[in-house]
Amino acid sequence: MKTKSLGFIGGGRITNIFLQAFANKKVIFGSISVFDTDSETLYALKLKFPYIRVAKSVQECAEKDIVFLALHPPVIKETLQQINGVVTEQTILISLAPKITIDQIASFVKCLQITRFLPNATSIINQAYNPVTFKTTMSDIQKWPILELLNTLGHAFETSEEKMEGYAVVSSLLPTYFWFQWHEVETIGTQFGLSLAECRESIYETMNAALNTMYRSGMKPEEVMEIISFKPLGDKEEQIRTIYKEKLNEIYHKIKS
What we know:
By secondary structure, this protein is α/β, with parallel strands linked by helices.
């Protein structure tokens, strides 16, 4: 896809992640244009990635071969109305937002190749786990180059559209449930005589091993959780479980409705 041109409608965090992932892999495109209504956002992006072109309008971005809708759901339909006369049947249109379905997108534009892709923050180091779903009329020949491009961000896998919001909760948002906790343990560990480097290495190696024990050992979850009898947070587990149930159900129903 190195001869393809890219257009990002929206220049926020997700676009930054994509551009960094492409830069990491040294992926070459014909051109990359970005449009955003916030000039400061565009300035910061251009400073980090000098080779991008700052588009003067949303329509200019929509003229590219591959167009990414890097926007929040509330403004996508309005944006689709703006680019309706610009995108063509040959345009590859990739939405990065939950909630808005392919059928809804197709009701605004005449693209034949519409894709939904849920990015993950870990794409910034090309190690993401990203679900992707395609317009039902797309052939495998049409899907293959899109998957090839998206796989530069990590592992992109095809799934049914009705599962996308579920993956948003258990995959796309997953790092946010744990990153602050690891950082807190790291900070506390330095108060016990360990260096910052020692804390980080310990947490990294132990978490990898813990994940493999839970999901690669062949043991049942109940068996894994009973390996260690002493549980410092045992009296808080039910409270933590309740928080997860309430918050994750809340976000799922919010993006699914």
